[in-house]
Amino acid sequence: MDHNKLIAQKAKQTLKPLGFIRSGKSRIWYKDNGWWAIVVEFQPSSFSRGTYVNVSVTHFLYESAGWSFHVPNRLNGFASAEGDLDFDEKVEAMANEAAILSKNLLEKYSTIDAFIDWYSNEDRSVMVN
């Protein structure tokens, strides 16, 4: 099976039941929470076929041409479609870990008061676009 199709399949099984939507045919899944979203990106590598996983919060409080990762999180590890015999199991584990982190982020940033607390207390220099 093509590694991109496998990633899409594992992400769909894990993230769609939580309300995530796939952005076209990309490796990006998002959960729209009104004024903010959780974005799960199965990021490719330029060196090897496979994936990293980023789970981020983006706020829609100002216009942006694309996704802005205001609270970025990269899960540990890289799953290689070339060298890992258990690639499908690694991708499934990454999707499950992304789902758990997404649930935690949903609780942490779900209210405007939680956002104000983050904005008032966090070092926003970690913002990346």
Q: Tell me, rounded to a whole number, the average pLDDT.
A: 87
Radius of gyration: 15 Å
Portion of residues in helices? 25-40%
The N- and C-terminal alpha carbons lie at a distance of: 32 Å
Spans of at least 5 consecutive residues whose pLDDT stays below 50 are: 124-129
Record field, number of beta strands: 5
Strand content: 15-25%
Describe the global form. elongated
Secondary structure category: alpha+beta
So how many helices?
3
Major sheet summary line: 5 strands, antiparallel
Structurally, the number of domains stands at: 1
Helix-strand pattern: HEEEEEHH
Identify the strand order in the major beta sheet.
1-2-3-4-5
Walk me through what this model shows.
This protein is an alpha+beta fold and 129 residues long. The protein has one domain (3-122). Helices cover 35% and strands 21% of the residues. The chain is built from three helices and five strands. The chain has helices at residues 3-15, 87-108, 112-121; strands at residues 21-22, 28-32, 36-43, 50-59, 79-80. It has a five-stranded antiparallel beta sheet. The chain is elongated.
How are the elements arranged and paired?
Layout: H1 3-15, E1 21-22, E2 28-32, E3 36-43, E4 50-59, E5 79-80, H2 87-108, H3 112-121
Antiparallel strand pairs: 1-2, 2-3, 3-4, 4-5
